[in-house]
Amino acid sequence: MSIRHAAILLTAVLCCGAAAAAADAPAGPKVQLRFVSPSITAQNWPHFIAAAQGFYDREGLQVEMTAIDPTTLLAALIGGSAEIALAPAGQLVVGVDKHAPIVAVGAGADRVPYTFMSAPGIKTVRDLKGKKIGAVAPYEAYTIVIKQILRKAGLDPEKDVDFVYGGGQNQRFAALVGGAVQAGLLTPPMDKKAAERGFNALAFTPDIYKYLQLSITTVRRDWAQQHADVLRRYLRSQADASHWLNDRRNKVAALQILEKATNSTPEEADAAYDAYVVRVHDFPNNYCVMRPGMEAILTMMHELGQTTATPADVGKYIDDEWCPK
User: Fold this and answer.
1) CA distance 249 to 241
2) How far is CA 270 from CA 33, 172, 306, 322, in A?
3) Could you give the CA distance from residue 218 to residue 205 in angstroms, rounded to a whole number?
4) Domain architecture of the chain: domains with CATH
5) Using one digit for the tens of pLDDT, what is the confidence trace for 91-150?
């Protein structure tokens, strides 16, 4: 499977709780939605829960998720091959600046618990000199974060390392394990899987940025306006799933759902729960856009000359009209 072009298809399978929710479902056939994401990880936990707990069924939705190369997410959205995307926030900003008809309408990866992992034998960031680092694209927020980590360790990210671009986190994990790259950012449970193979944790991104919007739920504006009720139903299902996940009484069931969806061990799923739910609270109960994260990414991109926008312009890129209130 190509690291750059690998795609994973995951169709939502409605199981636990679906029968109980069916009575509240809108009349008529389910609305089919295509959702694209950079990878299949714990960041998609609300999606997994909405499918497993019947929240999609209750809203009369059938949601098909496909993992595709992050550099093609917005093209898929704009081209009409997907209705909803968990898109890199940097791409969203660049796209809107170029007059792409897209807008962020819901949460994504704001306080995402990324760990900068390195191959066995590489104990410190300085040990990465002369090594290869996996990343999405040169202009992505993820890459900027890595460069900040390198600079703090006294390395010049433009001269001392080689960046290998392309692919989502699933492909990056495969590249790390296969030796194609020696470092990269991984979220739970991928970081746990890497640690079990002897990889080392060099940095934790929430320690560097309290808020930073890395990915965000994005749609075409015209589609949102024409399908406002469907979008509200989708975001409501994500909000209900997030609220359910954040309720500690549901932890055991939530871990089982993640284990099945990501082929994780109980220990890996538990580590993901600790990172996403306990430590960084990455899934807001209302699933609305978390403005501080978008303001932070605009500040970062403005300082690097990637956009003329400032945090005061955040309303150009987000719209909470459809999110649950």
Assistant:
1) 14
2) 30, 22, 38, 32
3) 23
4) 8-110+213-316 (3.40.190.10), 115-207 (3.40.190.10)
5) 899 999 999 999 999 998 777 778 999 999 999 999 999 999 999 888 777 788 899 899
